[in-house]
């Protein structure tokens, strides 16, 4: 039996000549699932520079994707995600650095072997006159068929399986030029899957899909990654989906990969704000969703809510462009979380503690500066009993109190 040290030496990748000194390569990081850091990598880039003509768009790119892992690239429009994916797929020449596929330099792998190892799907619209959806998917088997392209029973099984998995078997006889964008996207994913790649490169694979199909497709990719140890590198615009589907996320911005890591860390409030220039408070890092901007200006309406009674009113006020204040709420409550994103002023108590006099005083101050109050509570509990004082303050000051937003007409 080979001794442990010899085996480690054999497995250890040679230290690459590295343009950027001591910066750790993601390949050296733990996988987090107990796998050793030197599991053979499906994809490894070191110091990769990508761009068009000789102009580098993204430089110094170190990526490491293990079999079974899903790496998602996120970044604003034009940041270079597609260019990077095309370079990894061998469609564009790197402007610098290296790309290794299962330990071999990409440009040394012959075409057929490369096609059996890697499939890539981009969002270009191909001309597809007079061919059926099944013809398109069958093209994914070309790396396995002879020069005549005759499909074996095994090839046919793969085609059918990929079409069934993507919900496109029912489209098999349809003219590919006359299916919807979403249907075509699912057919193209079927083609890529029936190529049985060990590395799948996808540019915006869910861009044309409805929400149900997006979830189905990402679940399918996750299942394939787990069951067949297929590695996936994909770009996604939907950061909520990226948060849910990715094992790791690489954030591209300003010509660099500015962060790589676990989804929660990569899509933190600070990172999303930096990547996309959105107001930090509008982003919910738990759901990965971004709210429309809160209405500008001083609050005109004070909303007394809590326990989920306020969400539709907060959104309705936001849609109408009416700035509002809300309180006293709990930060962990659903109303508290939404008010933090949409209200001009939100007054909070500490979670799990009764609403105290100090918070009520701040809420009264905000309320007395408003033209109307919407009270969505018919009663208060032991914890927020003091919110009743807000109603008393409104009535004492002659500020109209409405039971719902419909009664605000003419008041604001
Ligand atoms: N064939 C090309 N020749 C020259 N420049 C190009 C070419 N294709 C894209 N670009 C430019 O490269 C930059 C990056 O484009 P790329 O498509 O890689 O970005 P992206 O991050 O995928 O954007 P998006 O999120 O909008 O899809 C853009 O400024 C784009 O105009």
TrEMBL record:
Gene Ontology MF annotations: ATP binding
The UniProt keyword set, sorted, is: ATP-binding, Nucleotide-binding, Translocase, Transport
The residue ranges of the ABC transporter domain are 43-279
Where composition is biased (Basic and acidic residues), the residues are 1-12
Question: Gene3D superfamilies per the record?
Answer: P-loop containing nucleotide triphosphate hydrolases
Q: Write out the ranges of the annotated region (Disordered).
A: 1-41
Keyword Ribosomal protein set for record: no
InterPro entries linked: AAA+_ATPase, ABC_transporter-like_ATP-bd, P-loop_NTPase
Recorded superkingdom: Bacteria
Bilayer-crossing regions: none
Q: What is this protein called?
A: ABC transporter ATP-binding protein
Native organism: Enorma phocaeensis
């Amino acid at each position: 039996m080979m001794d442990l040290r010899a085996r480690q030496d054999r497995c250890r990748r040679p230290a690459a000549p590295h343009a950027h000194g001591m910066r750790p390569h993601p390949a050296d990081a733990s996988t987090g699932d107990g796998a050793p850091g030197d599991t053979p990598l499906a994809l490894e880039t070191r110091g990769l520079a990508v761009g068009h003509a000789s102009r580098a768009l993204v430089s110094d790119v170190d990526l490491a994707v293990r079999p079974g892992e899903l790496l998602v690239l996120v970044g604003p429009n034009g940041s270079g995600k597609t260019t990077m994916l095309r370079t990894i797929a061998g469609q564009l020449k790197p402007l610098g650095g290296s790309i290794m596929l299962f330990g071999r330099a990409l440009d040394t792998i012959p075409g057929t072997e490369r096609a059996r190892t890697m499939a890539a799907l981009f969002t270009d619209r191909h001309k597809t006159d007079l061919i059926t959806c099944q013809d398109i998917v069958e093209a994914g088997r070309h790396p396995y068929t002879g020069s005549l392209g005759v499909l074996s029973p095994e090839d046919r099984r793969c085609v059918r399986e990929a079409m069934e998995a993507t919900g496109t078997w029912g489209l098999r006889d349809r003219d590919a030029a006359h299916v919807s964008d979403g249907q075509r996207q699912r057919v193209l994913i079927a083609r890529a899957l029936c190529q049985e790649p060990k590395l799948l490169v996808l540019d915006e694979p869910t861009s044309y899909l409805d929400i149900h199909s997006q979830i189905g497709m990402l679940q399918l990719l996750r299942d394939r990654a787990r069951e067949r140890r297929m590695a996936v590198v994909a770009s996604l615009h939907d950061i909520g989906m990226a948060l849910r589907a990715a094992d790791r996320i690489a954030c591209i911005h300003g010509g660099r990969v500015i962060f790589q890591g676990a989804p929660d860390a990569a899509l933190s409030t600070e990172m999303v704000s930096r990547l996309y220039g959105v107001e930090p408070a509008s982003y919910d890092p738990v759901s990965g969703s971004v709210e429309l901007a809160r209405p500008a200006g001083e609050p005109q309406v004070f909303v007394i809510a809590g326990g989920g009674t306020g969400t539709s009113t907060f959104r309705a006020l936001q849609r109408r462009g009416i700035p509002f204040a809300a309180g006293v709420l709990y930060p962990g409550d659903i109303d508290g979380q939404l008010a933090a994103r949409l209200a001009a002023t939100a007054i909070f108590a500490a979670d799990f503690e009764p609403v105290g006099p100090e918070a009520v005083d701040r809420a009264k101050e905000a309320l007395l500066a408003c033209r109307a109050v919407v009270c969505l509570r018919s009663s208060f509990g032991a914890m927020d009993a003091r919110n009743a004082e807000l109603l008393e303050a409104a009535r004492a000051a002659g500020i109209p109190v409405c039971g719902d937003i419909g009664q605000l007409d003419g008041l604001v």
